[in-house]
Amino acid sequence: MIDAIRAAKDALVTEHLIQPRLRGEHEALRVLLATRHGAVLASTAAINQLKALIVSGPDDLRAELRKLKRPAQVNRCAQLRDRPAQDIEHRMTVRALRSTAQRIQALQAEAKDLEGEILGLVRQLAPKLLDLLGVGPITAAQVLVSWSHPGRFRSEEAFASFAGVAPIPASSGLINRHRLNRSGDRQLNRALHTITLIRMRLAPATKAYIARRVAEDKTSRDAQRCLKRAICRQLFKLLEPTRQSRTASLEDLPQAA
Q: What confidence category does residue 185 fall into, taking pLDDT thresholds of 50, 70 and 90?
């Protein structure tokens, strides 16, 4: 109850309430993302089912398929044919493997086609996003869907809070620290997390930034949160060029030169 009252008071004194997302191209991106996500989840479930069928299948099928890597397993299972000379268990297992593998192929093809549609819309709306290290069509699309349009957020800080990357003070006694913010748009937060992981793996400047933060007595997870916050800052400056600078300094955002 206390939290609800405080939230209501904060909303009443807010000068700039968040605006609804735009429809049109941004809504098209949202539905494409949701549909692709469903296809990816269904594909993952079908792959797990295929693995279970292989593990519990007849010995000769299991021996043939277990030595193959996953793409080869799927292709081989999709091409399996019934053999009348085999017993009913073998024939029905082959049918189940073939059906499941063909479902996986169809779902993966669907996800790939949807990603192509998403990439085309992202190039139309904000092609500069794709030039950033770690930003692919899916993460760029999620950023665009959540950000929506110029002026939706009153400031870069508001956008960071909406993304769930604004740290929450959690100091106690002589310890000065912040804790993870679990609120906000979790899909946007996930996109920022993906960009962060890619840059930590590929960008020398980012690795140096993390090392510098750790040297300042931050944990590796806290350093990663700082990086995620900096990436959020860069994305907002890119998307709102009239209100923010077009570029971020290396101190603000470490990435590959």
A: confident
